[in-house]
Write a structure and sequence with these properties.
heterodimer, A: about 150 residues, alpha+beta, four-stranded mixed β-sheet, 7 helices, B: about 600 residues, five-stranded mixed β-sheet, about 40% helix
């Protein structure tokens, strides 16, 4: 358990209610997911029952209780992307990575997620890898995009 | 090389999400490098600065080059083009005509009336000084001298209605919150823009965050609030960064914090990040989410203006609504209410997306006709395809057919047509779109995004999705359509929150306007648009096929055979109905049926 990292994150937030989701974002950014031991520690420090934290983590799509890959791929499934073929891009990614959406490759290189509209409809269909937005993605571009992130 | 250059040069590069994704930052660097290389010294500039989204994302990276007050706009600028623009336009005084924006750019802009977006794309969103230089934050001082009652009266008289969906009059909401008992009172901004196909609020926060902040401060003065929150999607990292920076700058200038503007009023704004839950855009769910809980909506028999966040009076408006406030204070209620229709005042920003030539953000006066937005501003449908429908209002909205193209766009007209204004998403659908598939998409969205709290929405929407799946798989009957309507009525009558009560809208509106398409699915077992795989076969018209082999080369299933310059043939046993042949044939020889 990496208490030091968690305590550092906790110290960045004022001791007041209304910060749980913000803290969980930071912890997930640090660990790439939300480890149970760290969540229990946060529960004690914030005096919020672990059951409440668990229900929050489960409710919101961005939080994960399992480790994510080094590169996070999010395929936009907004309406503009849907009518311009985002499903074909998703299928191609699933095929190339040999995982289903919501899963992570065995080598922990890539996680594949679908995301509800990222608001980049002018670029539809759009795929976000880590912080990069790729626009007008066609299935045959998938190989090249994946290649640029492989270590 | 040293150039004596006394010109005033300003280069503005679009760095909204669209601009950045198309390489906006690289273009800025290229301009900076080139200008440094030629040692360009100028009186005021050159300065290369970032500007937010100007709306026309399809042409990114867009760049304004201003030399001595003369502005030329370039489209699709790359690093290489940037270097050549410096050499030709700035050094040789010869603008590069072939890279400049064309007629469609002007058509896109000419019919718009930009109030909220007026400075988006012109001002640097990361500089408070630029905004102050344009009289920014002066309206807070004006509002302070007006006093709370006068501010509320002005907003009421202006006729400002919530831009987030419901269209509730903002002034009345503010007044209820001001008159409610309990302290502190909260001023909230909904930047949890979740409707698929909508990005108005993202662009405002990315392009002109101070306008919205100024609006919130004016609201806080009117309502008597000391604490504000902006609830913003974590999926908008650029917007979050720019908002954070803007708030810090406002604090440094004492526009936020204790004794703002040297008065005895205090007001500060905190950012709350969403975490990927669409339902949190609903007012009570948003508040529950700030309170460290899953974002489950609460029943609304007690208004949030009486008991909202932490049980205290709370006033929630969305980004676009807040951004209208400084404009109304500056120009007055009479001026503002002269724009728009009888009941819908001012302008509305729409994100025009889908099967449309000019994808982008448009700000138009309320009451404009759909046809003007789609054809005059949007430039019509690509590839000369036929218009089929326009979907407005996000997952809670509806699909309107061509017969509505000449109806005015305002809150009432859209509602009467079975759709709604929503936050302003406008997705254009062409003849290749299957309306059953589109309603399944929206229902599926609501099924995934529902909070699961109340049974009618959780179970009812899931059942409707199942019925729609059977229809698209070719297992539907006419009774399926009756069942859809029955379920829809039940969900509308009994769901807890607006997400549930409005979830059936896309199905109901398509059943109303495109019933024959549903019937084709269940009676003829055909998908007229050729989208539903189980109901589609592709064939090649021998008379039209030129034997160019494009379809055969592109077919991923090797299902197409035929010699060069001879008509081709699709082997139905191998065909996966992926549509690649249909989309790639230039001669219209591939037929769907």
């Amino acid at each position: 358990m990496d208490l030091k990292a968690v305590n550092k994150i906790l110290s960045q937030f004022p001791k007041e209610r209304g910060n749980l989701i913000g803290i969980l974002h930071e912890v997930q950014n640090h660990f790439s997911y939300l480890p149970e031991a760290e969540l229990r520690h946060i529960s004690k420090q914030l005096d919020i029952p672990i059951t409440q934290i668990y229900s929050v983590v489960n409710f919101y799509n961005r939080f994960s209780l399992t480790p994510k890959g080094k590169n996070e791929i999010c395929v936009c499934m907004g309406t503009a992307c849907h009518v311009k073929g985002s499903e074909k891009v998703m299928n191609e990614l699933q095929e190339k990575l040999e995982i289903r959406k919501g899963e992570t490759t065995d080598d922990m290189e890539f996680s594949l997620e679908e995301v509800r509209c990222i608001g980049a409809c002018g670029l539809a269909p759009a795929v976000v890898v880590n912080e990069d937005t790729h626009g007008q993605v066609k299935p045959k571009m998938v190989d090249k995009i994946l290649g640029s992130y492989k270590s | 090389m040293k150039t004596e250059n006394n010109d005033s040069i300003v280069i503005s590069v679009c760095t909204g999400t669209g601009g950045v994704a198309s390489g906006g930052y690289k273009v800025i660097d290229a301009f900076k490098e080139e200008l440094a290389k030629i040692n360009c010294t100028a009186k005021i500039g050159p300065r290369t600065h970032k500007v937010g989204c100007r709306g026309f994302c399809a042409k990114d990276v867009l760049v304004d080059v201003e030399v001595n007050g003369e502005i030329e706009t370039y489209q699709h600028v790359t690093e290489e083009k940037a270097r050549k623009i410096v050499a030709s336009h700035i050094l040789d005084k010869e603008p590069v005509k072939k890279w400049m924006v064309k007629e469609d750019y002007h058509n896109f802009n000419d019919k718009q009336q930009k109030l909220v977006l007026a400075d988006c794309g012109k001002i640097n969103p990361e500089s408070i000084d630029e905004y102050i230089a344009q009289n920014g934050y002066k309206n807070v001082k004006k509002a302070m001298s007006m006093g709370p009652e006068n501010i509320i009266e002005t907003i009421k008289k202006a006729g400002l209605r919530g831009r987030g969906g419901g269209g509730f009059p903002a002034g009345i909401k503010w007044e209820s919150c001001r008159n409610a008992s309990g302290n502190p009172k909260y001023v909230l901004c909904n930047a949890d823009e979740g409707d698929p196909g909508a990005f108005m609020d993202r662009s405002i926060v990315e392009g002109h965050p101070h306008l919205m902040i100024e609006g919130m401060i004016i609201g806080a003065i009117a309502i008597g609030s000391t604490e504000g929150y902006v609830y913003i999607r974590a999926e908008y990292p650029l917007a979050v960064d720019r908002l954070r920076l803007a708030l810090d700058q406002a604090r440094e200038h004492n526009f936020l914090g204790k004794n703002i503007f040297g008065s005895d009023l205090s007001f500060d704004i905190k950012i709350i990040l969403g975490a990927g839950a669409f339902v949190c855009g609903e007012s009570t769910a948003l508040m529950t989410s700030i309170e460290d809980n899953p974002g489950e909506p609460r029943p609304k028999y007690v208004h949030t203006t009486d008991k909202g966040l932490w049980g205290k009076p709370s006033n929630l408006n969305n980004v676009e609504t807040w951004a209208n406030v400084p404009i109304i204070i500056e120009k007055g209620a009479d001026w503002y209410s002269s724009i728009g229709t009888e009941k819908s005042k001012g302008t509305k920003i729409f994100s025009l997306v889908g099967k449309i030539n000019n994808t982008g953000l448009v700000e138009v006066p309320m009451g404009i006709k759909l046809r003007e937005i789609i054809y005059d501003i949007g430039g019509g449908i690509p590839k000369k395809k036929a218009f089929k429908a326009v979907q407005t209002g996000g997952p809670s909205g509806g699909c309107l057919p061509a017969s509505y193209l000449d109806k005015p766009v305002d809150y009432e007209s859209l509602y009467e047509a079975g759709s709604m204004m929503g936050s302003g998403g406008m997705v254009v659908l062409d003849e290749d779109t299957c309306m059953v598939d589109v309603s399944k998409y929206f229902l599926d969205f609501c099924k995934d995004e529902g909070c699961g709290q109340c049974t009618p929405c959780r179970e009812g929407v899931a059942q409707m999705v199942r019925v729609l799946e059977e229809i698209t798989e070719g297992k539907g009957t006419l009774e399926h359509l009756d069942l859809l309507e029955e379920l829809a009525a039940m969900i509308q009558d009994t769901s807890l929150c607006a997400l549930g009560t409005s979830a059936p809208n896309p199905v109901l509106s398509t059943l109303q306007y495109f019933r024959e398409e549903y019937e084709a699915h269940v009676v003829d077992k055909k998908c007229p648009a050729g989208i539903c795989k189980a109901l589609t076969i592709f064939t090649i018209d021998e008379d039209l096929c030129t034997g160019c082999t494009v379809c055969a080369r592109n077919c991923p299933a090797d299902a197409i055979t035929g010699a060069k310059k001879e008509p081709h043939f699709i082997n139905q046993d191998k065909c996966t109905t992926c549509r690649v042949c249909y989309d790639s044939c230039k001669f219209g020889a591939v037929k769907k049926g």
